[in-house]
User: Fold these one by one.
Assistant:
Number 1:
Amino acid sequence: QITLKESGPTLVKPTQTLTLTCAFSGFSLSTTGVGVGWIRQSPGMALEWLALIYWDDDKRYSPSLKSRLTITKDTSKNHVVLTMTNMDPVDTATYFCAHSPLYASGSFYNWGQGTLVTVSS
Amino acid sequence: QSALTQPRSVSGSPGQSITISCTGTSSDIGGYNYVSWYQQHPDKAPKVMIYDVSKRPSGVPDRFSGSKSGNTASLTISGLQAEDEADYYCCSYAGTWVFGGGTKLTVL
């Protein structure tokens, strides 16, 4: 059974850096073709893809947020970490991590429950 | 990279069929066979319903089907049921990923 769970601060101040962790089980990020991505959803708004890291450490970022995002993995701990710098109230959103397997590599096949991050002073 | 275009809302009666369109460009939908569709109920995480344009994960009813023509992908739900009422999002790989703006499905 594949599970993913996001964790991190629920409240950050403007200009601070957000660090979120995705802890997963049921698959390995050292398996060929596997990726883990981050997607966010502002209240009442659509899903927005942020970043994805592959088993071979290939990293992809949203062009509009690339300068603020860093995604890393710790294969031994089954963790993926996303950092977003210079947080702003418009970054208030639920942040999801999701698994992209080889057999469905263009999709986000399994999702975490999401974690709500509020940006406010 | 602009968001894919979906109708804001669609509706149908139980038992009917509906289709949700998702329009992109030759750089995303038209360029790759990596369109996926997600169902999201209120305050829940999205759930993949279709991947690789037309493949259904195990456990997804065969009432859900996907297709693509040119730069437009479509999700069809036949035999509408009350539990199908949700938001639906399309997504396309394009070197990176882009989502649609979402469609609210109301089952009348």
Note: The longest strand of chain A covers residues 18-25.
Number 2:
Amino acid sequence: EAQVTQNPRYLITVTGKKLTVTCSQNMNHEYMSWYRQDPGLGLRQIYYSMNVEVTDKGDVPEGYKVSRKEKRNFPLILESPSPNQTSLYFCASSLAGNLGASNQPQHFGDGTRLSIL
Amino acid sequence: AQTVTQSQPEMSVQEAETVTLSCTYDTSESNYYLFWYKQPPSRQMILVIRQEAYKQQNATENRFSVNFQKAAKSFSLKISDSQLGDTAMYFCAFMKHDNNNDMRFGAGTRLTVKP
């Protein structure tokens, strides 16, 4: 089954304790992306990656890191989490090229709810 | 920068009725894509419908259709014969044609279908 898998689904942690949210896709997609979803703001892009070893900042990259050492994995790293990073996070993937031309431009994971105390 | 505005934070509709969700966007681009995504309580993001700006014909997918008004920069979603399973958050999204990986989302509209 084609899917994007995020782990964990839920996490409560404390300020300053480094955490990693993993994202893996089994569709051989070149493009992967991380979003955060906040009430009243919709989804905002944090980072994206066009391919292995290629990553770029989205709209709200501050406080986050990513890596793309393998095509299937795109972990999101919070080196020193803060309460303002409490949010619902989505990983997404797609084939490279024209997202709009595909009938399913992006495949989303099920989301990870992070609470930073 | 492109912005997407959904002015209705919440809406409700009776089962079997028709409802329209509004979306406006701001861009100086002439060619782009517009999308409606559905996010049910399960939190999945599901593509509902897609529109290419250079196509004048409004996209339709079964009970879902759009009213795309390019000059007005408006992209509303009409759901006909509403079903209980349509209850979800609906997000409007914009993507430039020449920047295939920069998708901008609106704040969302929470739709409740009442029995």
Note: The radius of gyration of chain A is 14 Å.
